[in-house]
Design goal:
By secondary structure, the protein is an alpha+beta fold. The chain has 7 helices and 7 strands, in the order ααααβαββαββαββ. It is elongated, with a radius of gyration of 38 Å.
């Protein structure tokens, strides 16, 4: 936005300092006149014929006072300019750092030295903001690169299949169509997951009253055939857990959690427990599953997009795209909740979702 040129902050402070000194000097002269000179007799002989009278004092005092006022004005301008420069030096550093960040260089930090004051607080807040912005930009760039890679894979497979079919017309069409269908389905699932993740990050959804216990039951009922196929016991326990949010997004959250708990489980004989409860003003959804033991350092990375721990990768038809827990984390964050992942000592994972409750 274009603005008209104006006085700099340093010049404004300088004029303020000089004006303050001039006003203080004028008040001092007024005090001297009001409380001293007016009591001096104004006659030709003066006080007792020896002391000077008011006329002589005024004639000798006011020229000296004018010189003193001029000196105060010059001293105020020079001293104010120097003091304003010293006071605004930290602000100049902050402005330079902001301009550097505006060019796209987010690695620069101010690191303001000295004791804590308003300028140091502003510099520290700026450093924190730039650090978070740099982390967010790096995360977005990494996400875009991973998404491009993931989307390129099914497209490359489709092109390869079509090239093979074009070069070998005798190839069985049914097998080709089936493989193209599977690859296309994976690409569509990935695209929908990316759109859902973006929607959850923006948080632009209509809130309504939702009971997490009903959401959990619906997700478990949908995935029960999948659990029975893998010979995994799926249990839903607990009571009502009312909250406010998008029923569609919360259902997707619960479905992703239950599906992950089923997929990343023991080959057979595993269990998945879904529990809901309300604690005061917090509604809780907790999902536990059996499975292999997870390294503690792996758990924090599971909510990052496209992160697949080596112990959790599946090669069957339920191999995901690495967005399941990332979508869950995004939905929970959009609903002002928290997501905790804790590895179980005997193997598997305990995932706890805490959302603000409603009466």
């Amino acid at each position: 936005m274009p603005r008209r040129p104006g006085l700099s902050a340093r010049l404004k402070l300088t004029l303020s300092y000089a004006g303050f000194l001039a006003v203080a000097g004028a008040l001092l002269l007024a005090v001297v006149w009001g409380f001293l000179l007016r009591y001096v007799p104004d006659n030709q002989q003066g006080l007792l014929g020896v002391s000077p009278n008011r006329y002589l004092l005024v004639r000798t005092f006011f020229p000296a006072a004018a010189v003193a006022m001029a000196f105060l004005l010059v001293f105020g301008l020079v001293g104010g300019w120097i003091l304003a420069g010293r006071m605004l030096a930290p602000l100049t550093r902050i402005t330079a750092a902001a301009r550097t960040a505006g060019t796209g260089s987010l690695s620069h930090r101010i690191h303001m030295e000295g004791r804590q004051d308003e300028f140091r607080e502003l510099a520290d807040a700026f450093d924190t903001m730039v650090e978070q912005l740099e982390s967010h930009v790096a995360e977005q760039q990494r996400f875009a690169a991973n998404a491009s890679h993931e989307l390129r894979t099914p497209l490359a497979i489709s092109r390869t299949l079509l090239d093979v079919a074009r070069k070998d017309p005798t190839r069985v069409r049914g097998e080709l169509i089936e493989r193209l269908h599977a690859v296309n389905k994976r690409a569509i699932d990935l695209t929908e997951a990316l759109l859902l993740l973006s929607r959850g990050d923006r948080g632009n959804f209509t809130r309504e009253s939702v009971d997490l216990s009903l959401i959990a039951e619906e997700a478990a009922e949908t995935l029960l055939p999948h659990a029975e196929q893998r010979r995994i016991t799926l249990d839903v326990t607990g009571g009502a857990a009312p909250t406010s949010g998008s029923a569609e997004l919360l259902l997707r959250m619960a479905t992703n959690l239950v599906q992950n708990a089923i997929v990343h489980n023991l080959p057979a004989g595993g269990t998945v427990t879904v529990h809901t409860e309300a604690h005061g003003d917090t509604s809780v959804l907790r999902i536990e599953n059996t499975g292999r033991r997870l390294p503690p350092e792996l758990v924090p990375t599971l909510t990052e997009p496209f992160q697949r721990g080596t112990e959790r990768v599946r090669t069957d038809e339920h191999a995901g795209v690495g967005l399941g827990l990332a979508i869950v984390h995004s939905i929970v964050r959009a609903h002002d909740g928290t997501l905790d992942l804790v590895p179980r000592p005997d193997g598997g994972l305990r995932i706890t979702v805490r959302l603000p409750g409603t009466p």
